[in-house]
Amino acid sequence: MKIFCKLLFIAYFLNYFAASAQNNYPQNYFRNPLNIPMQLAANFGAVRSNHFHMGLDLRTNSQENLSVVAAADGYVSRIKVERYGFGNAVYITHPNGYTTVYAHLNKYFDQLDGYVKERQYKDEKWEQDITFSPGQFPVTKGQVIALSGNTGGSAGPHLHFEVRDTKTEECINPLLFGFNIPDRVVPTISGLYWYDRRFSTYEPGANGIPVKKAGNAYTTDIIQVTSPEISFAVKAVDKANQGFNLGIYQADLLMDGKLIYSFSIDKVSYDDTRYLNGCIDYTKFSRDKMSIQHLSELPGMKLKNYNSSGKTGIIHLEDDSVHNIEIVLKDVNGNTSKLVTKVRYAVNSQQVTPSDQLVKPDEAKTVSTENAAINLSKNAVYDAVNFKIGEKPASHPAAISNTVVLQTAYIPVHDYFTLKIKPNRKLSTEEKNKLVMLFDYGSDTDAVKAKWNGDRAEAEFNRLGTAVLLLDESLPSVSANWKEGALVNNSSLRLKGTAKVGDIASFRAELDGKWLRFARLKDDFVYVFDEKCPKGSGSHVLKITTINTAGNTNTQTFTFQR
Q1: Tens digit of pLDDT for each residue in 295-352?
Q2: At which of 443, 471, 499 does a domain end?
Q3: Which residues form the M23ase beta-sheet core domain (predicted)?
Q4: Which range marks the domain in which residue 200 is found?
Q5: Is-contact 477 429, C-beta < 8 A?
Q6: For residues 277 and 302, is the Cβ–Cβ distance under 8 A?
Q7: Does 46 share its domain with 150?
Q8: Domain identity same for 395 and 429
Q9: pTM greater than the 0.85 cutoff
């Protein structure tokens, strides 16, 4: 019995040492930032549009204004107020070298909220990004720092919570810090795909393989491939105990018992988060809304701390022998799923031929038509692209150029490129100042005020699609949620903004000649009544000045009684 106990202790020690070597993050230092049990709506590393999810989305039971508390002692080092992104956010720096972030908040604690409001009125600007010294707003573990909400780029009430390395600002997977979130559910695998890697993952694209459950594992029929160089990708989710589709934490690919590729999501910086587009089948994600993660490295994918194998994941099949394939998926708690199958090189199919407009990773390229040119940097693509650019007649009534077609919206680019377009007629100086470039991605659009370079207008974008030059002489406007001159007994004033092309780039409100703080919630502008306009204060004149993307300015006046 003593020997058994000693062996058990040694095994426990070895397991603990191994876990500690892999995870040097302090355990149980941070507490739950909510006063309700932690339940995940999204985890760290989950696939998002053009980025990894960089923290935990904590459920607030579909409610707003729950108490948000400091996860540990520290001080408020920064706050942000923005239309999209985090909305209202608090950053707390802790003495152990980490910073926690709390986002989509409705309101800061009273002392901090008052400071922010005072700064907004001083700057006459609602959006803010303020940093603080350690002595200004110290907080203790469990202290209420804010109320939860649904501000910024939030699609529903929740708390977004991050843990960052204070020095490097890298976001670290919060689940590595020992939060008590019960999880006994293994990842679910629903698809397997292989790619011909002789040219690019984009051409000819994914080859789907039906997956079936076999006991506690998954399998497929033997995979007959038509290329001697292939890679795999997997469609899978981790539901944990919550039922939400969470991202995969770790994946290993083995062939004939040897590790071919491995990735894990431990930490990512915001500077690198866009490399997600080189970790997934971007075409499937953007076109089919399917999250499929590569089990290989694309040549232009340079995300640090992701590929833990040191190998590319590209499989070279030199004969027609059958090879054993094993894919192992794990979550942070070690819950594991396996897919076991076999692969065989069957027939050598025709290879994709590079075109004269080939764009490759690590090589800058300019691709042109008669009236347009796109300048791509050496970091633009993750894999080789036979780039296609063309022109067609524009259908927009305000268009003053052909529509330029750039490849397809289903191929990603990593950084901003410059697009130059020549208008189809000569423009006056006044017209040039009202020119925007409208970019259509298929699912949404973006408009940028164009700059002039010789006889061409230019703008920068970081997605592909179609673009056209528009002459925008329209005025932006807002509409009120009250009748002109009416007595307003609501708790707030709400204005809805409209811009025919692009967006409302600037908004200014003045109440009886003085700047008034309106918050911007998506396309609405909201003022919550306070001491600036108390009940019984009589009649008021509200002057609103808006400027759209093209630079056109509109001033409107509204009256109401309070």
Answers
A1: 999 999 999 999 999 999 999 998 889 999 999 999 999 999 999 999 999 987 888 9
A2: 471
A3: 52-117, 133-167
A4: 188-345
A5: no
A6: no
A7: yes
A8: yes
A9: yes
